[in-house]
Amino acid sequence: MTGMAETQGGDQGGAVSNRWYVLILLALVYTLSNLDRYLLGIVLPYIKAEMVLSDTLLGLLSGAAFAIFYATLGLPIARLADRYSRKLIITVSLAIFSVMTVLCGLASSFAMLFIARIGVGIGEAGTSPASYSIISDCFEKERRATAMGIMSLGSNVGLLLGFVAGGIIAANYGWRWAFIVAGIPGIILTLVMHFTMKEPPRGAMDEASLAPDTKQVSTLEAIRTLMAVPSYRHLVCGMALVLFAATGMLAWLPSLLDRSFGLGPDKSGLPIALIIITAGVVGTLFIGGMLADRLGKNDQRWVPRIAAIGALVMAGGAIGVAFAPSLGWLWTAYCFVAVGATTFLAPSLSLSQLLAPVKLRATSGALALMIANLFGLGLGAPFIGLASDLLELRFATESLSMAFLLVPVAGSWAAFHYWRCAQLLPHSLSSQKDDALA
Fold first, then answer.
1. Superfamily for 15-204+219-437?
2. What is the pLDDT of residues 102-140, one digit of tens each?
3. What is the per-residue DSSP string for 147-199?
């Protein structure tokens, strides 16, 4: 591991002053990871037709195949990121998931495609926690939600590219070429990051009392430390429930439009992507990032409160989507879903860093993502697919619409946990400072 050890001194000294370039690179990584992650949703109808698969199997392909390894491997990789070069971990992970995305396009059977999606999850597991840690060392805590919001816009841009470009390529050249084309930019970005990005010193933006020490704790001790914080526990629950609702609905929305309104993936991809990219700017950057930072300067409890309000907006919009009598109604309702579903991200990522000791920041982000993604990303699409299959005898082609009613239940539940996170936040932060000074 000595070759991975984080360099010290002058080579890192200018990294914080170059923080906007670092943030742009990390946002591009996040863009490509979401492009590769969500591309599957727009091509599901083509895969279903070619491989003759049930909705339950498609749900497992969309959720469990990716999420299980993405979530569980994130924690051990984050432990490495808390000790060694975060840049190296990100670049290696980026290369892996980009190559595996290409292999998705070369898969000749469901089993091969399932394995390739596992590979995408393995690669993406190493990017986000290390990125959160680097951003926290580049930006002051009063600006972190905004910085996290800018990085999180990569999710919306990646989805835009996946749903629009992926839908067009799949319609004209086949779904396999959509995966092959999507994997190439990541290989190029790997080289750019390796040769041009500098990693900041750990704790560069923190008070001396909270600066990292040289003592390393075990993984179990790190988990116990983080889960002992009441606000952190509620934060993780809120994240999991929002992800369950948002990713489950997004994975199945193109199929719903195809079945209920006759709108094929090549035509539904653009409006879905435009709604999400617009909602990303409004929800992720302006509301979840800039507004949360502004309100949080005077009262940090507003950061999780913003996420709670967003979860309720998502829940209300989802009811409108499920009972939409027309395309116009559905698009309007989905605007509320998209804004609400993107509002939670920047506050959640900022809180995952704020509630953790400096030496456990990558671990904190990974643990939150592991729990949230195993439940949310892993079960959202499969549960909606299973519910659709179970309801098919009664509701026929409308079974998927009825299955979408799982979304407002999860969204309302998430809002409760974010509100509790806010109520307990002063005590949690006070306890953390006492521990740091002990």
1. MFS general substrate transporter like domains (1.20.1250.20)
2. 999 888 888 888 888 888 888 888 888 889 888 888 888
3. HHHHHHHHHHHHHHHHHHHHHHHHHHH-HHHHHHHHHHHHHHHHHHHHHH--P
